[in-house]
Amino acid sequence: MADELSINININGRIYPLRIDRKQEEKCRKAAKMINDIVLEYKKKYANQDAQDFLAMTAFQFVLKNLEMEQLADESPIIEELKLLDEHLNDYLSLNE
Fold it and tell me: What processes does the entry annotate via GO biological process terms (predicted)?
């Protein structure tokens, strides 16, 4: 891919080399910063825990947020309600013709 870029991402003090699409660089760096910010918050709250615990809790937090967003984006209940409403309206209108 001609538009690839090699970058190093620092997550919790470890460097991870990545080859990404150049357009994704800002998003990748922002994601790493978000992870590091949350890990830092856990480190402040729970000083005696292992770094692995902070990463696990950070991953857990992101997955929960992702599941919440998926649930909000699920339009199927709305579509079903609209279909039902359409049926009721059609029934009503056919009775009044």
Answer: cell division
Counted domains in the chain: 1
* Rounded-to-integer distance, Cα 88 and Cα 81, Å: 11
Per-residue burial over 31-48, b = 16 or more CB atoms within 10 Å of its CB, e = otherwise: ebeebbebbeebeeeeee
User: Cα 13 vs. chain centroid, distance in angstroms?
Assistant: 23
Q: Please, which residues have CB within 8 angstroms of residue 42's CB and are 6 or more apart in sequence?
A: 49, 53, 54, 57, 58
Query: pLDDT per residue over 31-63, tens digit each?
Result: 999 999 999 999 999 888 888 999 999 999 999
Sign of dihedral through CA atoms 56, 16, 63, 65? positive
pTM of the predicted model as reported, rounded to 2 decimal places: 0.68
State the residue range of the domain holding 86.
Answer: 4-95
Tell me which residue has tokens 């891919």.
Answer: 1
